[in-house]
């Protein structure tokens, strides 16, 4: 009887110890999340608050909300950034569409077609993921400038970006396409659908989550790109927001005017991405999780 009680007490102590250990681990995890949230939320807070301040309010209350809110900052900022936003939207949408088209077609071909040296070609394409982009910057610039003569052209920004995103895109979509049920393609083939029609009616509809993930990733990359557009687009009328906002901020800062106007510009150029992610976030997360499970 005593031995039974001893075993029961040991089990209870072990359970209490494991619960305390789990609580400690959970507390540490929550603390890490709170620290990360602090570094994400606080800059956004300052960005929004300072975008609604006048120079006097910025001097007297630099960190708190000040009234009245200066909404004129947004109207002034919009006059400056609207053309840059339009240029960026054109470039970003063309890049995103090009990446999705090329990568989905290539990945479908790797999965559904048989051709010589398929595996070797796939490995060669994936190996480009290991090459740092900075190493190819000068050769790529010389090629765009001297061979294709695409300087001061949107194509000079769009085409290299599509080529650079192809290896990662093919890797993600190839992994996803490989996990699609083969029975669906066989059924479509029995109904008389060609390989290309199977791509349109079977592969693409089932791949919306991973396509949304890849599309958002490419859209973010195009929206935030600075170095390459700055090298190619010398005409100020063709500048993207990342190029245009730098002198915009510098002019206000050097003239000792309120930083509220450039901060309002930052908020304005962030809104399109937030709207896109709000509507596509479910597909984006599904694409990430489904891709992880298939890997």
UniProtKB/TrEMBL annotation:
<keyword id="KW-1133">Transmembrane helix</keyword>
<protein>
    <submittedName>
        <fullName>Carbohydrate ABC transporter permease</fullName>
    </submittedName>
</protein>
<feature type="transmembrane region" description="Helical">
    <location>
        <begin position="153"/>
        <end position="177"/>
    </location>
</feature>
<comment type="similarity">
    <text>Belongs to the binding-protein-dependent transport system permease family.</text>
</comment>
<keyword id="KW-0812">Transmembrane</keyword>
<dbReference type="GO" id="GO:0005886">
    <property type="term" value="C:plasma membrane"/>
</dbReference>
<keyword id="KW-0813">Transport</keyword>
<feature type="domain" description="ABC transmembrane type-1">
    <location>
        <begin position="85"/>
        <end position="280"/>
    </location>
</feature>
<dbReference type="InterPro" id="IPR000515">
    <property type="entry name" value="MetI-like"/>
</dbReference>
<dbReference type="GO" id="GO:0055085">
    <property type="term" value="P:transmembrane transport"/>
</dbReference>
<feature type="transmembrane region" description="Helical">
    <location>
        <begin position="256"/>
        <end position="280"/>
    </location>
</feature>
<feature type="transmembrane region" description="Helical">
    <location>
        <begin position="84"/>
        <end position="111"/>
    </location>
</feature>
<dbReference type="InterPro" id="IPR035906">
    <property type="entry name" value="MetI-like_sf"/>
</dbReference>
<dbReference type="Pfam" id="PF00528">
    <property type="entry name" value="BPD_transp_1"/>
</dbReference>
<keyword id="KW-0472">Membrane</keyword>
<feature type="transmembrane region" description="Helical">
    <location>
        <begin position="198"/>
        <end position="220"/>
    </location>
</feature>
<feature type="transmembrane region" description="Helical">
    <location>
        <begin position="28"/>
        <end position="48"/>
    </location>
</feature>
<feature type="transmembrane region" description="Helical">
    <location>
        <begin position="120"/>
        <end position="141"/>
    </location>
</feature>
<keyword id="KW-1003">Cell membrane</keyword>
């Amino acid at each position: 009887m005593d031995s039974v009680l001893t075993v029961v007490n040991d089990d209870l102590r072990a359970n209490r110890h494991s619960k305390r250990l789990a609580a400690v681990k959970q507390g540490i995890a929550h603390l890490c999340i709170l620290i990360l949230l602090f570094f994400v939320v606080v800059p956004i807070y300052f960005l929004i608050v300072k975008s609604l301040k006048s120079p006097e309010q910025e001097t007297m209350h630099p960190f708190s909300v000040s009234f009245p809110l200066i909404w004129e900052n947004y109207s002034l900022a919009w006059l400056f950034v609207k053309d840059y936003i339009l240029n960026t939207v054109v470039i970003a949408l063309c890049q995103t569409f090009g990446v999705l088209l090329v990568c989905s077609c290539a990945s479908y071909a790797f999965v559904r077609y048989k051709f010589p040296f398929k595996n070797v070609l796939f490995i060669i394409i994936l190996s480009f993921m290991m090459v740092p982009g900075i190493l190819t910057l000068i050769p790529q610039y010389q090629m765009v400038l001297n061979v294709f003569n695409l300087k001061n052209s949107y194509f000079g920004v769009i085409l290299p970006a599509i080529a650079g995103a192809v290896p990662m895109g093919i890797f993600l979509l190839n992994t996803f396409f490989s996990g699609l049920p083969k029975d669906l393609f066989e059924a479509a083939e029995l109904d008389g659908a060609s390989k290309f029609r199977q791509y349109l009616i079977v592969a693409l509809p089932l791949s919306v989550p991973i396509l949304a993930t890849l599309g958002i990733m490419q859209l973010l990359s195009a929206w935030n790109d600075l170095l390459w557009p700055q090298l190619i687009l010398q005409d100020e009328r063709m500048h993207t927001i990342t190029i245009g906002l730098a002198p915009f901020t510098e002019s206000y800062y050097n003239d000792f005017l309120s930083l509220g106007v450039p901060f309002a510009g930052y908020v304005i150029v962030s809104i399109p991405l937030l709207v896109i992610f709000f509507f596509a976030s479910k597909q984006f997360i599904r694409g990430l999780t489904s891709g992880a499970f298939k890997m």
